[in-house]
């Protein structure tokens, strides 16, 4: 989908305030409310806007340990990939999963209560299934930038 400057204004505003009213968004984009609503609806229908969520503070939820886990699978068979995908989908501690190039197959972002909770998850939840050949865990010491808006580049 091709985005114009008005779409980018709306998306930029929504990335900073997902609860903004249609009137606020219309004002930010220089539109009246009806055309603004139609544009947002089109962006939703086209899949540019995937949904709206509340950003929560993991520490306030008792999640004091955050780690990136690099994972290499035992093989790349359809069964192994499907089983690993199911593990990722079912495990709430895995908050992000990317298939990557390089020395490993996947990069997981994992949140846990504390280092012991993370260790228990790695041993019982991830490594016990026999899907993972090797993993390497990197604890996050401090988050310098936890969320940034996606860049809205023009052509």
From TrEMBL:
Which residues belong to any copy of the HTH asnC-type domain? 3-64
GO molecular function list:
sequence-specific DNA binding
Q: Which UniProt keywords apply?
A: DNA-binding, Transcription, Transcription regulation
| Keyword Ribosomal protein annotated | no
Q: Which GO terms describe its biological process?
A: regulation of DNA-templated transcription; response to amino acid
Q: List the record's Gene Ontology CC terms alphabetically.
A: cytosol
Quote the InterPro entries the UniProt record gives: ArsR-like_HTH, AsnC-type_HTH_dom, Dimeric_a/b-barrel, Tscrpt_reg_AsnC-like, Tscrpt_reg_AsnC/Lrp_C, WH-like_DNA-bd_sf, WH_DNA-bd_sf
Q: Does the keyword Transmembrane helix apply?
A: no
Q: Which SUPFAM superfamilies does the record associate with it?
A: Dimeric alpha+beta barrel, Winged helix' DNA-binding domain
Name it: Transcriptional regulator, AsnC family protein
Task: Please name the source species.
Answer: Sagittula stellata (strain ATCC 700073 / DSM 11524 / E-37)
Specify the taxonomic lineage: Bacteria, Pseudomonadati, Pseudomonadota, Alphaproteobacteria, Rhodobacterales
């Amino acid at each position: 989908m091709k985005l114009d400057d008005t779409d980018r204004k709306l998306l930029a505003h929504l990335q900073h305030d997902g609860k903004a009213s249609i009137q606020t968004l219309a004002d930010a984009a220089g539109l009246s409310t009806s055309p603004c609503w139609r544009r947002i609806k089109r962006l939703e229908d086209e899949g540019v806007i995937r949904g709206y969520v509340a950003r929560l503070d993991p520490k306030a939820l008792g999640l004091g340990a955050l780690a990136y886990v690099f994972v290499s699978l035992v093989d790349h068979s359809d069964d192994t990939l499907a089983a690993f995908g199911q593990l990722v989908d079912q495990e709430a501690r895995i908050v992000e999963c990317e298939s990557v190039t390089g020395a490993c197959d996947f990069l997981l972002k994992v949140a846990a209560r504390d280092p012991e909770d993370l260790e228990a998850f790695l041993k019982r939840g991830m490594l016990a299934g026999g899907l993972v050949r090797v993993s390497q865990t990197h604890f996050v010491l401090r988050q310098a930038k936890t969320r940034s808006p996606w860049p809205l580049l023009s052509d």
